[in-house]
Predict the 3D structure of the following.
Amino acid sequence: MKYVIVLGDGMADYPLEELGGRTPLEYASTPEMDRLSKMSEIGLVKTVPRGMKPGSDTANLAVIGYNPADYYSGRSPLEALSIGVNMKSTDIAIRTNIVTISEEDVDFGERTIIDHSSGEISTEDAEVLLNAVRAELETEEFRFYTGTSYRHLLIWDNGVVMDFAQPHDHLTEKIGKYLPKDKRFREMMEKSFDILNNHPINKERAAKGLNKANCLWFWGAGTKPALDSFENKNHKRGVMISAVDLLKGIAVGAGMTNIEVEGANGSLHTNYEGKAMAAVNALKGDFDFAYIHVEAPDEMGHQGSIERKIKAIEYLDGRVIRVVREELEKVGIDFRMAVLPDHPTPICCRTHTSDPVPYMLYDSTEALNNKWNYNEKEAKESGNYISDGFTFINKLFNE
C-alpha cells in the first residue's frame, strides 16, 4: 500500500454572495473530486491547535503528523532548513518578504501595504533586489538569504524572538501600527524602501503595470527547530513535493526527501502535472508516502480573487488528483489518498483563519458508497470530526 496527501494550501473558504452562497470549493468544476468523494470518507479536521496562529507552518506540521505544540519553534527556522542555512542555537531566523507599499510623499508609517507578494515576483528578480539591500544593510549581526519568489530570510546573530505583524493580515491598511517596535528593524524597512523603490527592476515592473517589489517586511521569527525523523515515527519513507521553502524545510527537518520539479513556482501557473508525476514516480519506486503541496489556492485567497482561486482548485482537481489516481491505477498500485487544505484563506478577509478544514480520504482497495460531495458544508454534515490535526496522518495510514 502507498500513501498520498494532496494539500491545497488555503483551499477552504466561506460562502460567497458572488457565488450564490457557495464557497469556491463548492462552485469549482471538480469532476475528479466529485467522483472520488462518493467513494471516500469525508469530514472535518482541526489543523491549527487552539491558541496558535493559523499559518501554513503550524497547519502543515499538523497534517504531516507533528504536534505543533511540541515541535513548532517559528516559521522562518523551517524555511532556513530548506534554504540550507546552518543555524546556531543562538540564531534567530526571520522571514523577510519583499512587499509592495504605496509611494505617496508621506511619513513612512502613513504608507499602505498593497501586496504581500509583489505580484508573485520571480526568484531571479527578487534575488537581484535582495542583493541590492544586502550590499547596504547586511552586517555581521544581520545576514540575508535568498529564498523563493518574494519569500526570503534574515538571520539575526544572538537575537531574540520578537512578535512581528504578518503582512498578508494587513493588506490595504496603513503600516504604521504594524511596524516593528525594535528601531533597528523599522530602520531597515525604511532604508530598504529607499534602496528598492527606484531600482531599475522596479522601474521596469512599473512600466509593465506590475507591482513594485519596494520594501522588506519582517515576520515569523523563531529558533532552530528539531523534528523527529518521519521514517522512524511512521516506518515509511516519504517525499515532499513543493515549491515553498517552508514545506521543503519541514521535509529537511523530518528527514524526508525533497523532489524538485521544473516549473514548480508556487503560483497559479505552477507545473501541476510535473508535481503529480514526481509523486507517482516516487511511489512506483522505493518511497511509501508522497506529500504534494500546491500553494496556488492560498495565494489567490490572499489576492482576494474569486475567479483565480476557483481556477486553482480546478487545476488541483484535474491536473494533480486525477493524474495521481490514473497513473497509480494504471500500474496496479494500491493506495490511500487524502485531499485537504492546511487552513482556510477566505476571500472575504484575504488571510488565514483557524476553522476546521474539509478532508477526503480515498482507499483504492475499499471504495465506499455514500452521498457526500467534497466541500466545507458537506464535510461538516458528515459528522466526521478530528479534533487533533496531528493525528490525521494515522487515519491515512489506517493505524
